[in-house]
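Sequence in, structure out. Go.
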Amino acid sequence: MSDLDAVARAHMAQQVREVAQTQATLARLWDLTLDPSDIDGSFASFQARASALIKGARSRGELTAQQYYQAQKVLAGFATPAPVVGLQPTQELANRNALHATSVAKAKAAIARGEPPEVALNAAKAAMLRSAKRRILDAPRRRLIALSDVDDDALGWARVSDAQPCYFCAMLVSRGPVYRAGTARFPAHDGCGCSARPVMQGDPTGGWSPDARALRDLWDKPGEDGHRGSYDWRRTYGLARADPKSDLNAATVSTLTLAA
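Output:
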């Protein structure tokens, strides 16, 4: 493993810890605050405090991303500092709206259909944590992309993920370091553990992580019917993930997984 790969994995591990800590705090806050007999009133209290927690986690994530980007530049042999880019918007209103839409709104609809409040609120809690994860990670990955887009020393960026990407994210990771300024947005679903890896000029890995290479090999490998890639990719990827002897699992077995 190259030093650039090691630093990339260390950055992912730090993001894992920071997101998991915030999720654990959010989960405790939910358990202490949500009252099945007063869902609207108790959620208003939760929403205000949870939004502040997400805002703080986004800021810490951006700092982590900035430090990681600078470390990648140094390892690639560049003495120039990372560019100066503005902080990502706090998105406080969007955070509040997402907390409501993904959790209590769905819980109230489920209760109206006859589902027990405890069951509905437990499902809402899980959905809230997945949404919070996406919103927290959105800030550091957007910062990495913004830095890569304006840095003359950078060629672009590659999508990287945790050890459990969905089939769609796995497809995007398999494309490797093809992403450039203005060429792609970063689609992310609730619970998504993906991030961006800046690719510097002269990177000996070419910007390819072991996981991305394993996924690319799987994409390029003809199936039993002779088709490649997008043809039945979901099934192909699922079979590879289930096979403990596959190259894909050999490449990802040591990768940390973000909390769902």
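Check: The CA atoms of residues 8 and 178 lie 17 Å apart. The radius of gyration is 20 Å.
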